[in-house]
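In keeping with the milestone schedule agreed at the kick-off meeting, the structural modelling team has produced records for the first pair of proteins. Each record is given below as a sequence line and a structure-token line. The laboratory manager (R.T.) confirmed that both were archived under the project's standard naming scheme.
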Amino acid sequence: MEKLLVWLPANVPVGDETVLVHGDYRLDNLIFDSDSPRMLAIVDWELSTLGHPLADFSYHAMLWRIPAGEAGGLLGLDLPALGIPSEAEYIAAYCARTGRAAIDPRVWEFCMAYNLFRIACIRQGILKRVLEGTAASAHAREAGSKARATAELAWRQVEEHLGA
């Protein structure tokens, strides 16, 4: 966490795009039509703010970097057998759908590291509430116990993809 706290602010990619960002854009916050592959609504907007359009998309796409069996992670699954595109295919589909040119790989990797750092921060906060006896969820201890591993995964993203 300490390394990320220093590295992330010093390496924010230059960008001039600002849009409304949901802040917690994931499948759990989407409502789909029961009869067709169509999204009907996005719920849970209390974290919304202004930010870069890749903030929500990269947060949503973190599943490709998270091990299977943890928080809906896809890493290690046989994606083609499941009919799920690879991360690269998913990014390409996003770009085609939004009219965006290819995403700079360094920007994408920064987004991945940043979002994993966010999750590690959230997990640290959950663990703090567990230790204080104020955690509401029965699964809070388990979620909080993953803070260090999540921060380590974020730092590995930086080391492996961004040369820190």
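The second protein of the pair:
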Amino acid sequence: MLRWLAVAVVVWAAAGARADEDSPEKQQARVLLAQGNQLFEKGDLRAALADFRAAYALYPSPKLLVNAAAAERELGDLPGAATDLRHFLDDATEDDSSLVDKARSDLRAIEKKCGRVGLSGWPHGTTLEIDGRAARDPTYVRPGVHAVKVHAPNGVELEKEGDVSAGENADIAMPKGAAVAVETAPPPHREVKKKRAGWIIPVAVLGALAVAGGVTVGVLYGTRSSGGSPLTGSLGTVKFNGNGFE
């Protein structure tokens, strides 16, 4: 296995002027990135990953996910590396084009060894938990049985346990009951002097609905837009060596 080198990319045009424009969060993220890269090179991978995560929380540059994926790959966490590469590809901007093709190729190699759990048809703001932990949509998992819980903003919940195989895309479809609740929910009452209408209808979709809306297999691979505003500024990347993940 080739060793990856995490390196900070400092491409600050007009460095003096740009420094004045940097937010405190971005400045601190840059410090954490440099510190994480040093720890990575020393072999302290868990500490490096913690710094990359902290930097991303302060300043969510998609490239920082590639740094995180490098540390996770070296730690043997293939699902974590695949998840971060997937969301790097989802959020990458035109400025990240030099990394996109390689990241996509490496993701294809990794996802053959992992399962993937994602949501299908659920409304915006729906949360996903896998094995009791908050997860992004989609999230890669180790092959095996996993407990999944989905919670929609209107109160609809679905809990399901199922086996996910390597290379399988397990899509959790929104149950019919959830779809009805989303479509018929009236807008919130805006009259201050009157009792506010209870427009959110909690629905526990368990039992039969859980079976009906269980994990189904589908193919949802590909780069999709995150819909967010593109981030500017280069903050963090990984130099891919040789065959990348191999």
